[in-house]
Amino acid sequence: MSLVDSEDFSLPPIQNVDDEPDLSQSESVEEATAKGLELKDLGNASLNEGHYTDAIHLYSTALSHLPANAIILANRALAYIKIENYGLAIQDATAAVAADPSYPKGYYRRGTAEFALGRAKAARKDFKAVCRLRPKDRDARAKLAACEKAVREAAFAAAILSEETAPLSETFKPETIVIEGGYDGPHPAGYLEGGEGEGRLFEVGALPREFVMVSAPQDPCNNMLLDPYISNINHHCIPTPIASQASIEHFRSQKVVHKRYIAHLLLSAKRYFENLPSLLEIPIPTMAPDLNDPSLPPRLTVCGDTHGQFYDVLHIFELNGYPSKNNPYLFNGDFVDRGSFSVEVILTLLLFKLSDPDCIHLHRGNHETKNMNKIYGFEGEVKAKYDDRIFELFLEVFSHLPLASVVGGKVFVTHGGLPTEPGVTLAEIRKIKRGCEPPNEGLMSDLLWADPQPFPGKSPSKRGVGFSFGPDITESFLKGNGLQLLVRSHEVKDEGYLVEHGGKTITVFSAPNYCDSMGNKGAFIHFAEDCEPKFTQYEAVPHPNVRPMAYAAGMGGLFM
C-alpha cells in the first residue's frame, strides 16, 4: 500500500472494543492503584507467555482503574503490535506519551507501529525522541538508523521512478542466465533446447508435472504412501502424490530451483495473470477428488494466509491431497512475508498454477505488495536466495494477481474485506485496474485491507490502514449481489477460523502457530455443491531451524 509518509500525521480515532468503563472515579487512589498494578503484572505474564489477547484483556481491565498510566498503555500497545493492530498500538502509545512525555517506551512503541505501516519518517521522529531520553541505548540508535535508511531508500526510489520506462519483464531474457555445472536441482524436460523452445515449457498448462513433483507409488492394500518423508495422515485416503527429485522436494531440502527457470516461471505467470479479470468465477468441481471413493463429494478447498510457512503448506497437501483438476484449491493471499520460507511457498503455488491452471487459484493479499515485502522479509529473502531482478519480477506478478472470486455462484472470497461504500457491484470489482501498488483508498484497498467489526457501519481500522465494516455492510453487499457468504482471511484466529456477522462472514487463516509464537491452529474450508462451509483444523509441523523474519532488514525483530 502506498501510504503517505511524513513526520507529523494523525490517525482518526479508532473505536476500541477492548476498552472497559472507567472505574477510577468510583475508587480511592489507593484502591485503583492496587487493582491496576496487579492486573498489569498479570498482563505482563500473559504477554511474556505469548498469550496476547489475554494480555490485552488484562491491560484493558487495568486501564479501567488507571486510565492514564503510561506503562500500562505502552504495554498494551506492544500487545497490539504482536497481533498487528498497529492503529490501536499507535493510539495507545500516543496516550502513553501524553500521560508521561519522559517515558521512552511510549515513543518506542509508537515508532515500531509506524514503521510497520511504512511510515518511516514518523517512526524516525519517535526514535529520535527515544535517543534523546536514552542517549546510550544502542537498540534505539539501531532502530533510528533503520528509519534513516528507509527514508533514504524511499527518496531514491521516488527520484528514479520517472526514469523507468518499461517493466523488467519486457526486457528480461532468462535464457541468458548460465546454469552452472554444480546445479543439482530439477530441469524441465527439453530444457537443453534453450531460447524460445525453453520458454514454451513454462507456458500455462505446458509445464510438465514432473518438474513440479513426481507421484510416489502407493500400497494397493491400504493406500499408504510409500515415502520416508510423509506419514499417511489423510483420513479420507485420497491418493496423494509425493514430490520426489523435483521442485517441491528440492525446496523441502532447503535448496532452490535455478534462477533461469524461476525467471521463466515468473514471466509466464505475469503474462497469464494480467489477462485475468480482477474478479474470478470459480465453479465447484463436478468430479470427486478421489475417483476410487464415491463417498467424497466434489469440492473446492479454500485456504487463508500461509505467510512463508512452507512446511505447513506441505502439511495441508498431505492432509487434503495435492492440487489437481478434481482437487482444486483457492489460496486467499498473503503467501509471503514473516515466515522465512516465503520463496518456497509462492513458487510451489505458481508451479502448480502453470502446470494446470484449473488446479489452483490465487488472490492477492496485502502482503503481496512492495512496501510490506520490504518490511516483513520477502524482499530480503528473495535477494538472499536469488537477486534483486527476480524480486522485481515477483512484484510484477503480485501486481496482476486477481483480487476476489465468486465460488459456486454463492460465496464471495477476498483477502481483506468488503467495499465500505454502499452499492458496489461485482461488475465494478471485476473491472478494477491492476498492475500497480494498491492505492491508499478505494475498492482495491478495501479488498486487501478491510476487517469485520461487530457493530454496524464503517470505522477507521484497528490496523491504522483503511476501514472496518459492520454486519449491516456485509448483509447489504451480499444481498445486493445475490450472494450468501463472505470468506476472507487477513487475521490470525486461535481456532484457524471464525464465523461472524450472524454466519455471513468467515475468516480463515492457514498458518498454524503463526510466526512460531501465536499457538493458533490452522484451518481450511471445503465447499461442495451446496456451498455450505466445512472446516478442517490442524496444528503446525516442525520446520528447519530458520526463525521467522530472518530476512527482514533493520527492524524485523521488533515485530516478533
From TrEMBL:
Instruction: Give the first-level EC class, as a single word.
Output: hydrolase
Entry GO terms, CC: cytoplasm; nucleus
Q: Which SMART domains match?
A: PP2Ac, TPR
Domain Serine/threonine specific protein phosphatases: start-end pairs = 257-542
Q: Which CDD domains match?
A: MPP_PP5_C (cd07417)
- Where do the record's region annotations for Disordered lie? 1-31
Q: Name one GO molecular function term.
A: metal ion binding
Query: What cofactor is needed?
Result: Mn(2+); Mg(2+)
Q: Does the keyword Hydrolase apply?
A: yes
| Subcellular location(s) per record | Nucleus
What residues sit in the active site?
A: H367
Q: Does the keyword Membrane apply?
A: no
Principal location listed in the UniProt entry: nucleus
In the record, the note on similarity to other proteins reads: Belongs to the PPP phosphatase family. PP-5 (PP-T) subfamily.
Q: What is this protein called?
A: Serine/threonine-protein phosphatase T
Originating organism: Cyclotella cryptica
